[in-house]
Amino acid sequence: MENVKNECKNCCTCVHENCPHANVDENTLYDLAELFKVFGDSTRIRIISALMDGEMCVYHLSERLGAGQSAVSHQLRILRAAGLVRPRREGKEMYYSLDDDHVKEIYGAGLAHIIHKGGYVNE
Amino acid sequence: MENVKNECKNCCTCVHENCPHANVDENTLYDLAELFKVFGDSTRIRIISALMDGEMCVYHLSERLGAGQSAVSHQLRILRAAGLVRPRREGKEMYYSLDDDHVKEIYGAGLAHIIHKGGYVNE
DNA sequence: CTAACATATGAATATATGTTCATATGTTGT
DNA sequence: ACAACATATGAACATATATTCATATGTTAG
Fold this sequence. Notes:
By secondary structure, chain A is mainly alpha-helical. Helix content of chain A is 50%, strand content 11%. In chain A, strands 1-3-2 form a three-stranded antiparallel beta sheet. The longest helix of chain A is centred in the C-terminal third of the chain and has 16 residues, at 101-116. Chain A binds a DNA duplex through residues 37, 41, 43, 57-59, 67-77, 89, 91-94.
């Protein structure tokens, strides 16, 4: 409702884009929830993970995930709408790739937490 | 299903915890989706945002969010189960705080993406 | 232009999830 | 022990969401 002004008490006094203590209004928090919601589905996070290695067409994504073409296409639509992936047409095929490095940063930050909590063993 | 071994092609050859290209098995991806799912709710992200300023008791959280006590408590349970917040009892009250800095990193990474996409104006 | 292929989309269904209400648990002061 | 308060929890309900099926759109080769 209200927009409380909070100065960063932890890392700095200025408000730069990476500062997690930056003043954030309610609408931004809703946007943020929407963004994380997109990451919060196993099919979509698996798509993102697959695209870490580089672009891939829908058919190969579908194959790699063992999911239906329609399901993958629906999820790609959501990823696209969130600005997380970008399509590129080449003939009949659509190649998808991660939109920018923010996607990798969010993914990496989440992964670091999982690892820290010990639920992950690297081989 | 299968566990494909991918070496990082972008930033390094070693596999350290922050590398977004680290080899990640299917189970970890499911854990990751579960983690982001926790961030992907407006009530929970508002709780996290509130706790950025420091610990807070349930009643004050409930007050600040304009949400019911029960709703907040239910969401705190989920945040606790995910290892994102930590409770501390002081008399009748329960004070919650962010569990560790990973929470801030994930939050900050998401916020950076929102800002980059232009959906956020800092005052 | 037509057939074959790749992807996208709409509708329907089944499942997951958040909130509310009622109540239980736990703590303090008397 | 009891009353008052703070928080937690279970059940019920309403809503959101992911998948599937059928079909539409778009592209290429012949």
